Amino acid sequence: MLYSQKVLDHFANPRNVGEIADADGIGEIGNAKCGDIMKMYIKVSGDVITDVKFKTFGCGAAIATSSMATEIIKGQKIEDALKLTNKAVVEALDGLPPAKIHCSVLAEQAIKAAISDYYTKQGIDPTSIVGEIPDCCEDCH
């Protein structure tokens, strides 16, 4: 299985790892059955994601996609962060082996789960804004 230099870099030197103690939104996606669990923390000011951190238990591709996704959404408006797709994350990493594409789905879903939590904490029903968030990937079922 060949990984791009960007994947190897984000795996070896992941950006934005950790927790935000007073996070405005927290999203957790995945389960132990598939082996990948991702937790995303966001800090929001106005409608901009000013900080984002993640913790991922999973393979190198899951760690790399988490790292890249946080780099992409940091400093973005919530509405723009919600448009981030797993395809865009994979492209930003110069691709992933086909067997590892499902790892990138977790990053997209974890961001949406964190934004959903943020809206819930604001007293806003997030479903019409964020949509339904599956609790894992198709490969788990």
Summarize the topology.
Blueprint: H1 5-12, E1 25-31, E2 36-45, E3 48-57, H2 60-73, H3 78-81, H4 86-92, H5 101-121, H6 127-130
Antiparallel strand pairs: 1-2, 2-3
Write up what this structure looks like:
By secondary structure, this protein is of the alpha+beta class. Helix content is 41%, strand content 19%. It is built from 6 helices and 3 strands. The protein has helices spanning 5-12, 60-73, 78-81, 86-92, 101-121, 127-130, and strands at 25-31, 36-45, 48-57. A 3-stranded antiparallel sheet has the order 1-2-3. A hairpin with a 4-residue loop joins strand 1 and strand 2 (36-45). Helix 1 crosses helix 2 (60-73), helix 2 (60-73) packs across helix 5 (101-121) and helix 4 (86-92) crosses helix 5. The chain is globular and about 45 Å long. It starts with a helix and ends in an 11-residue tail after the last helix.
Note the main attributes of this structure.
141 residues, 3 strands, single chain, alpha+beta
Summarize the structure.
The protein has 141 residues and is α+β, with helices and mostly antiparallel strands. Helix content is 41%, strand content 19%.
Task: Give the strand tally.
Answer: 3
SS summary, helix count: 6
How helical, in percent, are the residues? 40-55%
Distance between the termini: 24 Å
Radius of gyration, in Å, reads 14 Å
**What are the segments in which pLDDT stays under 50 over at least 5 consecutive residues?**
none
Overall pLDDT metric: 89
The proportion of residues in beta strands is 15-25%
Give me the side-by-side strand order of the main sheet. 1-2-3
Class computed from helices, strands and strand pairing: alpha+beta
Gross geometry: globular
Can you write the helix and strand succession as a string?
A: HEEEHHHHH
The main pleated sheet reads as: 3 strands, antiparallel
